[in-house]
Design a protein that fits this description.
single chain, about 15% strand, three-stranded antiparallel beta sheet, alpha+beta, Aldehyde Oxidoreductase, domain 3
């Protein structure tokens, strides 16, 4: 507002705002926020604003009001278009069978049954799993489930027991003399704890926190499978589109 008042040569009190624009009511002049950003300068100190200069509650446009998310109706009535809904001529679909633990690789792949499923185009060994390319998503899913894979046992996670690991991790956390690998540091905890007026000791299970995070993630993200369409061919026509939660963004990118 101050930058606009300076540019317009008007008193700050004569200006008001509407969605995305600053307005000078007496002359009817309007200037968009994007235009202001082109010439605005950040002041060395923030301007002092008196309480009486703040917008009155009766002037609020959004605060205190129930504003519907723009994509909500399409999600509810089923018309929302996501990346997985994209259809292109000659389109193929992929599914990946990943190893049971992080860091394992396929050692022996028996794909005989998978290749008999109608629509399967190719089975692709990968460092971390086995991919299936098919003419329909259902053929890709069925072929993935039909794979028989023997995984190598090099990954450290094989044989890990989360329940038995909890007391081991807890004991390590309580041992303040145990050397660890700092993830981040701020301050000096040891003297702060020794000199604290009051201290409280408690412990919690990491699996509980993980379960809660996964539960929230499941509710938020997994209402539909993730998909990333990609157009293949000679460069520069080769292009992937990453998975998005926003159906509108996904659709607009494909229109472009």
């Amino acid at each position: 507002m101050m930058e606009n008042a300076r540019t317009m040569g008007r008193a700050l009190a004569e200006l008001s705002t509407e969605p995305s624009v600053v307005v000078h009511a007496k002359t009817g002049r309007r200037i968009g926020y994007g235009e202001i950003a082109a010439f605005a300068k950040i002041p060395a100190t923030a301007p002092a604003i008196k309480p009486e200069e703040l917008k009155k509650p009766e002037q609020y446009r959004l605060i205190g009001k129930d504003v519907m998310r723009v994509e909500l109706p399409s999600k509810v009535n089923g018309t929302a278009q996501y990346s997985i809904d994209v259809q292109l001529p000659g389109m193929l679909y992929g599914a990946v069978l990943r190893g049971p633990v992080e860091g394992t690789s396929p050692l022996v792949i028996d794909d005989a049954r998978a290749r008999t499923i109608a629509g399967v185009v190719r089975v692709v060994p990968m460092a971390f799993g086995v991919g299936v390319i098919a003419e329909t998503p259902w053929a890709a899913f069925d072929a993935k489930n039909a794979l028989k894979v023997t995984w190598d046992r090099r990954a450290r996670a094989f044989g890990h027991d989360s329940d038995r690991a909890i007391p081991v991790y807890s004991a390590a956390a309580r041992d303040l003399n145990r050397a660890g690998k700092p993830w981040d540091t701020a301050g000096d905890i040891a003297p702060a704890m020794r000199n604290a007026a009051k201290s409280t000791r408690a412990s919690t299970s990491a699996t509980t926190a993980t379960t809660r995070r996964w539960s929230r993630s499941t509710r938020s993200h997994r209402s539909r499978p993730r998909a990333m369409p990609a157009r293949s061919g000679a460069a520069p026509s080769r292009r992937p589109w990453r998975w998005r939660r926003s159906p509108r963004r996904s659709a607009s990118r494909w229109r472009r």
